Amino acid sequence: MFMTQLESAVAGVVTKEMKVVAEKERMDEEVLRSLVASGKVVIPCNKQHTSISPEGIGKRLRTKVNVNLGTSKDVTDYDSEIEKVNRAIRLGAESIMDLSTHGDTRIFRRKLIETSPVMIGTVPIYDSVIHHQKDLGELTAQDFLDTIRLHAQDGVDFITIHSGITRKTIDQIKNHKRLLNIVSRGGSLVFAWMSMTGHENPFYEYFDEILKICKEYDVTLSLGDACRPGCLADATDVCQIEELVRLGELAKRAKQYGVQAMIEGPGHVPLHQIQMNMEIQESLCDGAPFYVLGPLVTDIAPGYDHITAAIGGAVAGMHGASFLCYVTPAEHLALPNADDVKDGIMAFKIAAHAADIARGISNARDIDDTMAKARQVLDWETQYACALDPERARSIRESRAPEEDHGETCSMCGKFCAVRSMNKALQEEYFISFFIWEVIMDLIVNGEPKYVVGEQLHLILDELGYSGKHFVVELNGEILSKEAYTTTKLTAADRLEIVSFVGGN
Fold it and tell me: Which of 293, 307, 317, 434 sits at a 20 to 30 Å CA gap from 340?
C-alpha cells in the first residue's frame, strides 16, 4: 500500500527519499524522520516525478531557494523558458515553480517534470482558465478540482492553493481600506471568482477533496497567502493575520490526513517587522515550514528588488523561514529574462547561505572558512572554486589584472594589499610581540633609500647583510667606533655610509 512521506514518517519508516535528504543535510536519518512526522519538515516528492533528487524544507535544514518561471501572453517561448530552468538548476536553485499563464501549459509542465532533478511547483488556478477554455466566472468548483488532479497526475511535487481567503475576506478588504488591496495573482483570481459567483472559495470549501488528491500522489500543499502585503503600509494587518490563522488550521487538517503542508508568507514587510512575522507564523502554524516571497523591505527600488528582497530573505531565514522564493530585478516591471533570473538566484543563494550561518546549520560555514584560508595565501583558484559564481569572480579579476610586480594580488590594492604585506612581514619574521611595535622607516644608505625595521644600528647592520664582514660606518659624516654600534639609535633623517674592506693583493 502506497504511503506518503508523512504517513511513512509517522509509521516509523525511513523512506529512500528521506535517506537522500539526510545525506545531503548531513543529518541522522531518524532525526529527519521525526521532523517529517511532526510536520516541521516536508519532502515534496510526487510519486510520478521519477527524475527528482529529493530535497527537504523545514527545521534544522539548509534554507532552500525557489525560482518562478513560465510563459505569459506577451512572452511564449518554451525553449527560452526551458533554458532558464536549466540555468537556474546549474546555479543552485532547489525548486522551480511553473507559473505559466499562456500557451499549451501541459506540454511545458510535463517536459519540466520529465527532465528536472529539482522539485516542481505550480498554481493550478492559473491553469484552470487555460485548460478548461472558460472565462473565470464560468468555472465551477469541480473544474478547479479537476485541474489539481491533472497537475498531480503530471507529477507536480507541490501546489499553491489559496485556501485561506473566504467570503469574509471580501468584507475585510473593503472595510480595512488597504493601500494595495490584494496583490497575489492567485488570491485576486479567487477573490474575483467569489465576487462573480457568490460562492465560497472552492479551495476552502472542498479542502478535504483536495487532500484526497494530494494524498494519492503525495503532493505537498503550499498554502498560499492571498492577503500577503504588497506594500509596507499593508504589512502585518488584520487581513494578513486573519488569513494566517486559517492557514494554520488547514495545515493541521492536512497533517492529520497524511498530507505534507507548508505555509506561504509575505510579501512586503519593513525590516523591523520580519522577526515578528516569523514568530507569529511559528506559533499559529505549529512550526510548519514557512515559504516567503522576499520579503521586500522597501517599496522604492524597482530594477533592484532582488536586493531589497534578498535583504528581507536573509533576515526571514535567520528567524525561521525555510524556503525563499526568489525575486529578480524585473519584479514589478516585466517578465524576467535570463540575466534577471541569474541575478535573482545569486541574490537569494547569498541570502539563504547567510541565514544558514546565522541559524547555526551544521557545516554551513565550512566553505566560508575554506575561502578565508585561500585568501590568506592568495590562492585564487581555490577562491574561485569556493565562490557561488566562480565564472563571474574569475572574469572580474582577470579583466582588471594587477601589474606583474604584484601579480599575486588584485588591482584594488596592488602593492598595498594587506594580505601580501602581512605575509611578507611574517615570512621575514617581522613580528610584533608583547604589544611593542617595531619602528619601520626609510634610511639613506650609501646614497640609496633602504627600507628597514627597527632603530638600533647594530640590528640594522645585520639586516643589511654586514654581519661578519669588515667595514667602517659613517653616520651623518662622522665615523663611529664599533662600541657605538650597539648604543646608537637611528632616525629616518639619518644618512649612513658603510665602507667594506675586501681582502686581496
Answer: 317
Condensed to tens digits (0 to 9), the pLDDT of residues 253-276 reads: 999 999 999 999 999 999 999 999
Phi, then psi, of 58 in degrees rounded to 5 = 145, -160
Tell me the residue ranges of DSSP E strands in 30-139: 41-42, 57-58, 64-69, 95-98, 119-122
C-alpha 180/C-alpha 170 separation (Å) is: 14
d(CA 19, CA 488): 73
Number of compact structural domains in the chain: 3
Is 320 found in the same domain as 302? yes
Same domain, 319 and 259: yes
Cα distance between residue 317 and residue 63, in whole Å: 7
User: How is residue 342 written as a grid cell?
Assistant: 541569474
Reduce the DSSP state of residue 475 to 3 states and report it. strand
pTM for the full predicted model: 0.83
Residue 76 lies in a domain: yes
Integer Cα distance of 327 and 405 in angstroms: 43
Residues 370 and 281 in one domain: no
Strand ranges inside 168-294, DSSP E: 220-223, 261-265, 290-293
Cα–Cα distances (Å) from 185 to 192, 224, 236, 320, 326, in that order, read 11, 11, 19, 25, 16
**Residue 55 within any structural domain of the chain:** no
Structure confidence at residue 154 (pLDDT): 97
The answer to whether residue 6 is domain-embedded is no
Cβ-in-10-Å burial (0-12, 13-18, 19+) of 230 comes to buried
Residues 132 and 281 placed together within one structural domain of the fold: yes
Burial 139-164 (b: 16+ CB within 10 A, else e): bebebbbbbbbbbbebbbbbbbbbbb
Which letter, b or e, does each residue of 486-496 get, where b requires 16 or more Cβ atoms within 10 Å of its Cβ? Answer: eebebeeebeb
User: In the structure, what pLDDT confidence band is assigned to residue 359 with cuts at 50, 70 and 90?
Assistant: very high
236-256: pLDDT as tens digits? 999 999 999 999 999 999 999
Separation of alpha carbons 328 and 307, rounded Å = 8
Q: Are residues 181 and 278 in the same domain?
A: yes
- 98, 84 in Cβ contact below 8 A? no
Expressed as residue numbers, the domain containing 151 is 63-359
Domain end, chosen from 359, 382, 400, is at 359
Say if strands 57-58 and 64-69 run parallel, antiparallel, or are unpaired.
unpaired
Quick one: 322 and 409 in the same domain? no
Helical (H) or strand (E) element with 280: helix 274-284
pLDDT in tens, 15-71: 999 999 999 999 999 999 999 999 999 999 999 999 999 999 999 999 999 999 887
Residue 435 has pLDDT above 80, yes or no: no
Q: Give residue 37's identity as a one-letter amino acid code.
A: A
Partners of 433 in beta bridges: 436
What pLDDT is stored for residue 432 in this prediction? 43
